[in-house]
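Margin note: ligand = prephenic acid.
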Amino acid sequence: MNDFKGNIALSNTTVSATNAALVALRERIDALDTQMLALLNERARCAEEVAHTKLAEDPKAKFYRPEREAQILTRMQSLNQGPLRHEQITHLFREIIASCLALEESMRIAYLGPEGTFTQEATFKHFGLNVATQPVDSIPQVFREVEAGRVRYGVVPIENSTEGVITHTLDMFMQSGLRICGEISLRIHQNLMCRHANWQSVQKVYSHAQSLAQCRYWLDKNLPQAERIPVSSNAEAARLASLDDTAAAIGSRQAAPIYGLQIMQDSIEDNPNNTTRFLVIGDQVVSPSGNDRTSLLVSTRNRPGSLYHLLKPLAENGVDMTRIESRPSRTTNWEYSFFLDVRGHEQDAAIGGALEALRQEAEVVRVLGSYPVAVM
Ligand SMILES: O=C(O)C(=O)C[C@]1(C(=O)O)C=C[C@@H](O)C=C1
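Resulting structure:
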């Protein structure tokens, strides 16, 4: 007997017993919600007091404390015993913290737009859904908005696990004095969207070049006839697809409702672990969280063994390097700047020692920021 027939066969007594159980459970949920409401507001009042305490100590105090947020989220994950998953707990607590932070200060965040990009998704993931945002046209423009003080922080992409580093962002650090205050790690799910259900017949697929590259094999297999047209952003791709029945777009789920499209196929990225890392940029020095990363910009003259001389101080001080990128220096031909990521905080003795030795070797050594490693 299937469920449907089973339900029909239930006697009146069973139905009322089921109803009674439901009523009791809902009463329990209502009682728990009442407790949570009181607790949430108590927490919010604490955050308001934190704001007063910070201001009393320093009238220019920063309210956003990424290291504290990372500690709270990590602690909640370690305490969590389910059935809610770590990811859901993290998401809920992020929203709670964001709402408390909004009571302390109303902030505006610039991000690489337009609306519907993965950078927007990363911004909301980190700062909560209710933060005021300012989508801008380019990575340099995000830096300019923060430098001019028109927004408090900016969010820019830095690297993708499939397609590698975003050189535009690295290059901006050569000109800008802004610091990295945080990082956001976002699992990138690419979606195929168009105006109608007949997606297999489309002749064009618009997307950002990186997204097209991330779906290369899926497109070869499922839409071999369609021309792949790279455009400035996934949101622009969605806009173009919204004007044309013979076209589809690939991009973030967020873009579909904004441009009146339907998601026809989801998670079409070739690599199931496709992740993009974003940076939060601002003018803030962030305290240690206990699980930090430090980004360095080091420039040196090109002489034999120069890279070896840069890396030796790190190795000798036991500093764990997680990334190195080289970029041609903008000022002199054949001089290189290196972007290094190391584990730890600039206040750690090991990194302090390595920096001191590095400064003997290199022309320029700049700490771009020490910040908490992204929590989920
Ligand atoms: O602990 C602080 O400094 C706070 O401002 C409180 C709080 C929170 O809600 O827990 C809010 C915002 C900060 O970014 C970090 C934490």
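The two ends are 44 Å apart (CA to CA).
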